Amino acid sequence: MDLRSKFVAVGTALKSQFLEREEVIDGMICAALACEHVLLVWLPGSAKSALVRAFTDCMTGAKYFEWLLSKFTNPDELYGPLSLKGLKDERYSRVTAGKLPEATVGFIDEVFKGNS
Q1: Tens of pLDDT along 22-63?
Q2: Which distant-in-sequence residues (6+ apart) come within 8 Å of 107 by Cβ?
Q3: 100-to-1, 42, 63, 91, 94 alpha-carbon distances in Å
Q4: Which of 68, 63, 69, 96 is nearest to 82 (CA)?
């Protein structure tokens, strides 16, 4: 199966599961093909996270990261803590295992509620 057929199949499957989201699903597929970001701004409870999780599940080997922002969220929660070993070697680095920098798909929820 070629790449186009795979994305058509993903689109068809997601569109049957998420009604009235055809344009958003097409946009997500285009963004994935172009290696670009997608910003989803809808009302609360409109299945944004479920759609992103289902889309990620369709990708073989994709790593998913999800985080709910609040005014108390700090960068370590998203990007990983500072590496103490790196600091000993006079390098500024982070331990990014399981965090946003290593994710194929990152879903940051409630972006407008996060701190600066």
Answers
A1: 999 999 999 999 999 999 988 888 899 999 999 999 988 999
A2: 48, 49, 52, 53, 64, 65, 66, 67
A3: 30, 22, 9, 20, 11
A4: 96
